[in-house]
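INFO  loader      accepted 1 record
INFO  loader      residues=239
INFO  predictor   begin
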Amino acid sequence: MKHTKITFFTIISIAAALTFTSCGADASFTANTDKSTNIEVNLNFGQAISNTLKALTGSGDFSKMLSEGDLTSAFEKSDLTLAKAKWISQTELTLQGKIAAPEKQTILLTDKGLKIKDFVNCQSNSLELNLSPDTIQGLVSALPEDSQYMLDLFMAPVFTGEAMSADEYLMLLSSVYGKDIGDELKAASINFKMICPAGKKLLSAQGKSIRKNTNSAQVSLPLVDFLVLSSPLNYKITW
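INFO  predictor   done
INFO  writer      dumping tokens
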């Protein structure tokens, strides 16, 4: 079986905007009857983070750090086919793609055998999203050094494994990088929608703070709560 190391932006796509450097993220996961999953992710990296990155690395333009072509080619041999990668501005990115059905996935994301289905799992009558500190830390350990460096700069407990409250983390970050970045993160959220296949109606929705609609369910998670995540978050819809 193949093994591939993933880039920082692969995490963004696979985990539906479960990324540190995005200060605003909206993602949708649409189940298909063949058990594949369509995804769309819209990211806004925030001006304070862009300014901080520029001070640390010399560039705050995310679009120059990783081009649309680089993003597309990174997925050519993966279980996630990236149909679109578009930089709307220097700090805003849209991604669209399709995740292969679980039984058709062949690519290992880490040496521990993780696949995309461990995060997004579509079955004949259900769709699940699973966010676990253990699996996220496993992904981080498999990243190339430059991508690990990007994450290490911001010391997020969900990546380091260190126990810390949201207030403690924001205080730490503000003391190192300034109040603006702490305020930006505090105001940011990750919003995602889980959508039934075309023509199907939602039967049930499970998970913390999940809201149900006719054929979908939605969740809004404060970004800082994700960054200090210490226990798994699991979401599931059925139809």
